[in-house]
Amino acid sequence: MSTVLRQHIAAIVSLTDTEFEQVLSYFTTKKLKKHQYLVQEGSEVTQEYFVVSGLLKAAYTNEAGKEHILQFAMEDWWISDYLAYLQQTPAQLNINCLEDTTLLCISIENKKKLCETSHKMEHFFRMKVSSGFVAQQQRILSLLSNDAQSRYELLLSQYPRLFQRVSKTLIAAYLGVSRETLSRFSGK
Description:
Blueprint: H1 2-10, H2 17-24, E1 28-32, E2 37-39, E3 47-53, E4 55-61, E5 67-74, E6 78-79, H3 82-87, E7 94-97, E8 101-107, H4 108-117, H5 119-145, H6 148-158, H7 160-165, H8 168-175, H9 179-186
Antiparallel strand pairs: 1-8, 2-7, 3-6, 3-8, 4-5, 4-7
């Protein structure tokens, strides 16, 4: 399990075995079953999560009851309700498991301590935040400027594995289209 995190970190910074063991000591492990909630709207969010195995969905449900999927997270991805996590406010999102899931969890306090004691990890987390901002900006721009079929094709080219693991209904919700519209794009 720690091998996945080590490889993930190594893509940005190099750690000695001793340094990695120190980093790992700041994390805890959590295992959830398919359909279990990791975060529920209104709850306290004290952790950021690294996905070791499994698949999750982060979604916002509006006042009319319509679910808007903000993010999927599979192996080697991070997920949380970041507004709630960073500002210590009640969760606005529901995050639930689409598959049995194993996570490495880090509290905001442990993340701060880790970054204070390790310049390498501070750099790692800064790079992850930067890439997250870029991905979020790209998604917003795609939603604003691309038609639904272009968004579908972009998602398919970027994350082909996702299409093998997520129902077409959820893919449609993520893209902001109906299931029928998605079927026309995919030819099925």
